[in-house]
Design brief:
Blueprint lengths: L1 E5 H12 L13 E2 L4 H21 L4 E3 L6 E4 H10 L3 E5 L2 E4 L3 H13 L17 E2 L5 E5 L17 E6 L2 E6 L1 E6 L2 E6 L5 H15 L8 H32 L17 E5 L5 E5 L1 H22 L2 H31 L11 H15 L12 H17 L8 E2 L4 E2 H5 L2 H19 L25
Parallel strand pairs: 1-8, 2-4
Antiparallel strand pairs: 3-4, 5-9, 6-8, 7-10, 9-10, 11-12, 13-14, 15-16
Amino acid sequence: MNFRSSLRELIDRSKRRLGLRRPIQELEQFPMIGTIDAALIAKQGTVGSLRIESVLQCDQAAWRPIGRFPYLAIDASTLNKALAEGRNGNLFTHGTVLQNVSMDDLRLRLMSALVGGGIAAQNKADAEVVVEGQANPASFGYLVGNSSFDVGSCSFASSGTRLVVLDGTSVYQYAIGGLKIVGGRSQPDARDFSFDEVSRLRNIFVDQYLAGGRRHLGRRERTALTALLESIFSENSKLNRAAANYHTGRKPAGPKFAYPTITLTRYGRLTHDSSGSPRISNNFTLLHYENSLREFDLLKTATTEGNWAGIAQDGVYCIVSLGACIEAFSNEVFFLAEGIHPTHKEKRQPQAKLDALGQKAATKSGRGFSPLAKPSPERDSIDRVRVLRNSFMHFSSETLGVSPSVNVSAQIAEVSESECRIHLKNVRVGLKHQADQLPELGVLLPLSGMKWLGPNVEIP
């Protein structure tokens, strides 16, 4: 993996894929004097993009005061020279260097976090997708909220909650702090770096120039702007020296990971063994629930057509998949609580197992746990699905009665569209109630009304 992408680009792509709202409107950018060498950018990839952002913060020659809005222009020749030299540098950023997983997998998990669960499984805590120390040299990329060319980014002023260091062909990243509010505005808050003065100077530029109307600057105002830019870069230089010392004192001996990009699919969750080798844990809770929704969609079509054989087949497999979803979820909770996977000796019914193990897993993390109420529609459906699923999977040629309402097998009535809709909703709500209290699971199910499986696939 070698990418640089803005959060805006990721959201736009994902919105188009999910059939959601139109792309976010482009932001106004600083004008460019000359042209950036596209071949150098393409050759250097993520490192080249980081190098450009570093130069914009560290080299005042990259900026030219101009008389019209936005009053600063970027000098492409300075950027091209830094790219050609392979210049090392430091970068304070609100973006993030990521590693180990593909761009598609990252996009899906980002959208899952933004719009709700069920689009993709969440990675395990030890996936270490966010770089701390040296990035995986074979698989890393950069995600940032806005382009450094966007006017509102004020990328000439050092600012960020992370420090990125370009050292030869290696990339390092350190989390250095958070954000604080000063005078109603957000700015970095870091123990080892002071951003107070550079933030104050940046705000002067915003207030006196960007927010001052689209006027033309006279010679005196341009002279004042040049002086302000020099003051900003004086502060940038102090922060840059502090960054070099910070990196020298923390630079690791080598990368923790050095393997090619892993493809997870929507169900995979990256983790690592004790040697640092990648492992994948699949979220079968999500997979089985998705399949139950697809079977339910087929069931609805069969019901509309009066196809009793289709109703029987699709209804049965909707319930079978839903039962597998419940079992997969209870096994996830078992492992979280006990540290081992369940065996055939585990005979407790799923909800009874969840009541006890959910409490144990939550206690280990210092939290309380609220089981499903007794009685409740969610608990009733979880138990009924268990009984039905077992009867379908372990059928012993028993005879069944006839449903008086439709004169078909009572078994078909148990898997009708209306019954499956009730169970799909109750199981989803019941598992979500428990999963929300155990965030370590990383188990998320779809939200009602979402359309990511298809525009006509109902999620009760």
